[in-house]
Amino acid sequence: MPEQSYYLGVDIGTTSTKAVLFNKAGEIKDSHTVFYPLHTPNQLTAEQDPEEIFRAVLTAVRETLRKSDISKESLKLVSFSSAMHSLIAVDAEGDLLTNSITWADTRSSKHAKHIKENLNGHDIYLRTGTPIHAMSPLSKLLWLQDEKPEICQATAKFISIKSYIFHKFFGEYVEDHSIASATGLFNLEQLDWDQGALDVSCVTKEKLPRLVPTTEQFTGVAPEFAAFMGIREDVPFIIGASDGVLANLGVDAIDPGVIAVTIGTSGAIRTVSPVPKTDPKERTFCYVLTENHWVIGGPVNNGGIILRWLRDEFASSEVETAKRLGIDTYDVLTKIAATVKPGADGLLFHPYLTGERAPLWDANARGSFFGLSIHHQKQHMIRAVLEGIVFNLYTVLLAVEELTGEPARIQASGGFARSELWRQLLADVFDKPVIIPESFESSCLGAVVLGMYATGEIEDFSIVSDMIGSTHTHHPETEASNIYRELLPIYIRLSRLLKEEYESISDFQRKHMK
User: Fold this and answer.
1) Which of 132, 247, 254, 370 stands the most exposed, by the fewest C-beta atoms within 10 Å?
2) Inter-helix orientation angle 378-404/478-497, to 10°
3) 241: nearest Cα among 161, 176, 173
4) Which of 277, 247, 191, 286 lies closest to 416, judged by CA?
5) For the segment 124-155, what is each residue's pLDDT rounded down to a tens digit?
6) Backbone phi, psi, residue 87, to 5°
């Protein structure tokens, strides 16, 4: 009997790296996750140690394969997913000059504003598909030039975290079209670095990695790393794409009219178009999956990271309860939220604790409770936090619909999809049926499917519909949806009315909280 084939997807995320081993039917054989910190010494900085992340990749692969006990010959490929918008400076010897400056870092917010207002930012967005925002490497490059010119002088290459890892493996700095399309430096039509954006950033092509398609294969991984991970040196490594676009593929949301909603540490709403599309109002992104698949949508900063804040800062008793019961703290929090009726008795929460990307694109945005009265209790605040995260995603959906039309169906994924309350909340707020695949590992599965396509094992992406397993479907409950239809206009108006106040309070915080 021939040995079964296996495929490894590796997702380099904001708070962890996960490796997931699939068979050809999309069934998970084994997985392993390695967590690492996001260094936030102040409210503007969000960095990570690239070496720590590289070690996490090595360990995640090694432990997944060790637990699975498969033979080296049965592993057919390793394919990569990665978080977007990271920026790392290295010198001519490949030594680090900076940490990985992540998407959540907002130190370049004033530089983003300067690009928008004075450096043809609108035209750059229309060509690159990356909204002008502190998240983007374009803005970060201007900040580095102003604040750390000595680093810019010493830099040989500006790269992403995935480029750093592939250089460690193969000795060359490369960037896939998908990660490149999230830098603000990549021309969507030309599939090359955009000269206008480079002129603004004062960076030449020579200081950026070589561009490759998302299907590019590499073999000959450094022997010491192959030995550590327990793989053959000649196993194909597929460079893959970004976590967001691969999540669409991994939940079978690649046909026009299908919307993917993901809530992990952050969150996003995305749909696929056969051609690139940008928004005249600059609310949405356009990123590459392949040259025939363009992912249009909007990311939000504030997804699961808000729940972690809620747990760490306000839920010490719930943490102890969870320990005693042997369950997850988040399960305790959602059970408490479920005791409160939809709308949290008129309490709204804007979850802008780390600024916000879509649809506001305002790094100065700040979180707030609105409608708080004497009868509101802790459980109302928990419910309002959960609802506020989904309300924010709904505002992104409204922007995407203007470009691509009303969705035919919604596919949801991410850690939140494990919770029945979250799933129902999404259906009620969106007022549409929500389908949740059985497999929650959407980015890793998407990476594997892309890898199979790259190596010629499959001719197109249609196989993914059979790989995602059975699904759960949640239909909106009329009473809850009607309540949310009343609250959502208030929620949206507030975020617009507070724009000037967001800037004022963030200026105050920068001045007094250094």
Assistant:
1) 370
2) 80
3) 176
4) 247
5) 999 999 999 999 999 999 999 999 999 999 99
6) -140, 130
Question: Can you tell me which residue has the tokens 């073999």?
Answer: 219
> Which amino acid is residue 244, in one-letter code?
G
Give the amino acid at 487. L
Domain boundaries, the chain: 6-245, 304-409+479-512
- pLDDT, tens digit (0-9, with 9 covering 90-100), for 447-498: 999 999 999 999 999 999 888 876 789 999 999 999 999 999 999 999 999 9
* Contact assessment for residue 68 and residue 61, using Cβ atoms and an 8 Å cutoff: no
| Confidence (pTM) | 0.87
CATH number of the domain at 6-245, out of 2.40.30.110, 3.40.50.2300, 3.30.420.40, 3.40.50.300?
3.30.420.40
CA 169 to CA 171: how far, in whole Å?
A: 6
String of DSSP letters for 358-392:
TTT-BTT---EEES--TT--HHHHHHHHHHHHHHH
Which tokens go with 429? Answer: 């707020």
Cross-strand bridge partners of residue 175: 211
Instruction: Kindly write down the DSSP assignment for every residue of 18-60, as one continuous string.
Output: EEEEEETTS-EEEEEEEE---B-SSSS--EE-HHHHHHHHHHH
Q: Is the pLDDT of residue 410 over 60?
A: yes
Closest CA to 288 of 185, 236, 214, 198: 214
Contacts of 166 by beta carbon, 8 Å cutoff, 6+ apart:
172, 173, 174, 218, 237, 239
CATH of 304-409+479-512, one of 1.10.287.610, 3.30.420.40, 3.20.20.100, 3.40.1440.10: 3.30.420.40
Buried b / exposed e over 278-315, threshold 16 CB at 10 Å, is: bbeebbbbbbbbbeebbbbbbbbbbbbbbbebbbeeeb
